[in-house]
Design brief:
It comes from Blastomonas marina. By secondary structure, the protein is mostly helical. It has eight helices and two strands. The chain has one domain: Sufe protein. Chain: A. The chain has a two-stranded antiparallel ribbon. Strand 1 and strand 2 form a beta hairpin. Helix 2 crosses helix 3 and helix 3 packs parallel to helix 8. 34% of the residues are buried.
């Protein structure tokens, strides 16, 4: 998975539809999430599209599997994950993911329908991280 800084660097050079294409490409590059994990328990509430997030732990690092049934939403999911993927749970729990995503100006770049679930997804990721960091 590409780093958030790498994605931001490319994103800043793009405009309009090219930014949408980049988000779609990021979504396509997500690690596949097995259908068996796409359950009500892994569903992110408040998203206009269906979004599933499943946390795993590899050593001290958190690793997330995620998917969406909408291409651009899946790209936004990939963007959120690029901020937290494979980092220590304690670091993710303390991280200001919203601030990390601010340079992408998603609220002004995308419709409110596409971004309404982002805070819920961030909250879910941070809750998983805090639970795992807490032991």
């Amino acid at each position: 998975m590409r780093s958030l800084d790498d994605i931001r660097e490319e994103y800043e050079f793009l405009e309009g539809d090219e930014r949408y294409r980049l988000l779609i490409e990021l979504g396509r590059d997500l690690e596949p999430m097995p259908d068996a994990l796409k359950t009500d328990a892994t569903l992110v509430r408040g998203c206009s599209a269906q979004v599933w997030v499943y946390p795993t732990q590899e050593g001290k690092a958190l690793h997330f599997l995620a998917d969406s049934n909408a291409a651009i939403t899946k790209g936004i999911v990939a963007l959120v994950l690029s901020a937290v993927q494979d980092k220590p749970a304690g670091e993710v729990a303390e991280m200001d993911v919203t601030a990390a995503l601010e340079p992408f100006d998603l609220k002004n770049q995308l419709s409110s329908n596409r971004t309404q679930g982002v805070p819920n997804m961030i909250a879910l990721v941070k809750e998983h991280a805090a639970r795992i960091a807490g032991g």
